[in-house]
Each structure stands twice: as structure tokens, then as C-alpha cells.
Amino acid sequence: MPRPAPTKRAWITEFSTNRVEAAAPIATLPSLRKQPALDLSDGLPKYFLKTTTSTRYVRVMCEIQCAISSTGAASVNDIVLPLLHAEYFMVNGVQTISVIAAP
Hints:
five-stranded antiparallel beta sheet; globular
């Protein structure tokens, strides 16, 4: 029986507050909003536009190793995130964030 093709999605969630608990960042619920999952299977950078000035933190998690940038189209040379590992980033003002598969 053939194995199903692996999925290649990224999730980004916005938060307005964050606190430190035992030296680990903890986002406070509820989140401001959850962005639609980004399909990274075509190898092209995908953009997420942070449109709210209330957003202070974003949480990024990818089903595959991915890279993220806030200075234009993401490339495999940007900040690499391991698969299924959530990372939190502080953002300032309205920013555009880009994510790309980085195998």
C-alpha cells in the first residue's frame, strides 16, 4: 500500500501579550487570530501580512523544516525552523512575514 504524501503546511498565530514563566515565553490565550495554514509544497515563499497594530508576538510552526523572514521573500538562508517546533517572535508595528520550505 503506498504511503500518503507528507503535508507541508505552516501555521502562524498572532498574540497581543506574552509573559515569561520559568524562563520560557508563554503566549496568553485567546489569540488575536489564527491565520489560514500556508501550503509550502510548491517551494515558493508564502506571505503572511500582519495587519493589526495590537499584535506583539507571532507563533510559527511548520510540518516540514522551514525558513522565515520579515525583510522580504524568505529563502533557505533565513532563520531556519525545525519541523513541528513552535517558535515565538516579537514583532513591531505592521510587518509582512514570509515563510518557505527549507529542506
